[in-house]
Design brief:
alpha/beta, eleven-stranded mixed beta sheet, three-stranded mixed beta sheet, 14 helices, 18 strands
């Protein structure tokens, strides 16, 4: 069809531009869009007018980035979505232009909401297809996408698609029946469910390599050891594969479903940084034992800050730039721990470590995300992070296979305690417990008592249905 052909050309032109543009010009272009986007929100969103008035901010006097950063208040879920009716958060105070409503997971205890208009819906689809085209060449390869994201989250794409949510039996049945008819299959879900799917697929003798299947993870943070384990499970050589990928994407319901994504280049950088302590510290800061996920982001869609600037642990603050957003949030704190890295800074760091060959083709700035700020357990003066547990949990593939991936980190009498759920049918042995401890000690500064549970005995939510984010602390 002519329309599809034109869209393919547009995607390729966009990719070509993003690979050839001066990265500083791209970032400055995004900065130029910030003040008009802020003025639009300040003039047309009733709730935002009230918030600015409460902080004595006259939007007409804010006409440059320095003043914006100095005067405009940071907002969060509790003083927006928990406070105002949804109409008051929308441009014009109405939801009449709504195409699609979305909810966050409610993990924080407060739900937030996103609304897509018809125009924004189309733009999201175009941006997702462009990212998929860059990474997987979907313009030339007949591609099938299986959406296993929980909570009814849709993947806006022009690809042929199956929607199975978190029914592994349904997803595997579809893969076996339809994937042989395509050149490649992309499966999108959260990390825990992708693990379950890969392992159950092996039990059913699915040939992941022959079907040319790649995995895309969202919804939750994962470690580099998890990527390695998942690659092992689906017979993917991470160092020598041009066609297949295990990658991550990040969206936030109230902001955008395609905020950030990995590429083969950013994945290689993260993998090398996990092996190379000096590179890891130059990219992510001192005392970084477990690499955060390194994403590309689009400065013409999102103005991104990492605050507070003087802090070692910064939080990501978003200002959305699209003129089509019905809820245009400004300086919105997602509570995700992270920091931006300009393309020029990344280039210098890689050159300093003789890794120039890893420099991404896309001239986009990058952002690393290291989980939620403040999510750690303190025991005997030592901070223990769930990200460290995740890295250790998948370090030994035999150990990784034995667990569902769910664990609870807690403490009793100032002593840390780690409780791990085993898969159905796995027997608890002293040898298995020792293997878990040895794997974890590579990343956690202190030995933690490990308690293993048979699947049905795990005391934290036998409602585990892959629909909800699990609280590890």
């Amino acid at each position: 069809m002519l329309g599809d052909f034109i869209k393919k050309i547009q995607r390729k032109q966009t990719i070509k531009l993003l690979c050839s543009i001066d990265p500083s010009k791209l970032e400055k272009y995004g900065e130029k869009l910030l003040i008009p986007a802020f003025h639009r929100a300040a003039k047309k969103v009733p709730a935002y007018k009230k918030i600015l008035a409460e902080h004595n901010v006259n939007y007409r006097k804010i006409n440059d980035i320095q003043t914006f950063k100095k005067e405009v208040p940071i907002i969060e879920k509790h003083n927006t979505f928990a406070r105002f009716e949804i109409e008051n958060l929308c441009v014009g105070g109405t939801i009449k232009n709504m195409k699609l409503a979305m909810s966050s997971s409610g993990f924080s205890g407060v739900y937030s909401y996103g609304i897509n208009t018809h125009q924004n819906y189309k733009r999201i689809s175009q941006s997702i297809d462009t990212a998929l085209d860059y990474v997987f060449n979907i313009s030339k390869k007949k591609t099938f996408l299986v959406n296993c994201i929980p909570m009814g989250v849709k993947v806006h794409t022009s690809l042929k698609i199956a929607e199975t949510s978190v029914r592994s039996d349904m997803a595997l049945a579809i893969i076996k029946k339809f994937s042989p008819k395509f050149e490649q299959t992309l499966i999108v879900s959260d990390p825990h469910f992708l693990k379950k799917l890969a392992e159950e697929g092996n039990e059913q003798n699915i040939n992941w390599k022959k079907l040319n299947i790649s995995l895309i993870s969202g919804e939750d943070w994962f470690s580099e050891s998890f990527r390695s384990y998942l690659a092992y499970a689906i017979d993917l050589d991470l160092d020598n594969s041009l066609d297949r990928l295990i990658g991550a994407t990040m969206g936030i319901a109230e902001l955008d479903l395609n905020l950030f994504h990995e590429s083969p280049h950013s994945i290689n950088i993260r993998r090398e940084a996990q092996r190379n302590e000096a590179l890891r510290e130059d990219l992510f800061g001192k005392d970084c034992k477990v690499c955060p996920i390194l994403f590309h982001y689009y400065p013409h869609r999102t103005f991104l800050e990492a605050l507070p600037e003087e802090s070692k642990e910064k939080e990501l603050v978003f200002s959305m730039l699209s003129p089509y957003m019905l809820i245009p949030l400004m300086r919105y704190n997602s509570k995700d721990k992270g920091e931006t890295i300009s393309y020029s800074k990344l280039q210098k760091v890689l050159e300093n470590h003789n890794n120039e060959n890893m420099l991404p083709e896309l001239k986009l700035p990058l952002v690393w995300v290291g989980g939620r700020k403040g999510r750690f357990l303190e025991a005997k003066g030592i901070h223990i992070y769930p990200e460290e547990i995740k890295q250790g949990l998948y370090e030994d593939f035999e150990v990784a296979f034995c667990t569902t991936g769910y664990f609870r980190l807690s403490k009793e009498n100032n002593e840390a305690k780690l409780e791990i759920q085993l898969k159905k049918g796995v027997t608890i042995t002293d040898n298995l417990k020792t293997k878990f401890k040895n794997a974890l000690l590579k990343y956690v500064e202190t030995e933690i008592p490990v308690i293993l549970y048979h699947y049905q005995d795990f005391p934290y939510g036998m409602e585990l249905d892959y629909e909800r984010k699990f609280k590890h602390i």
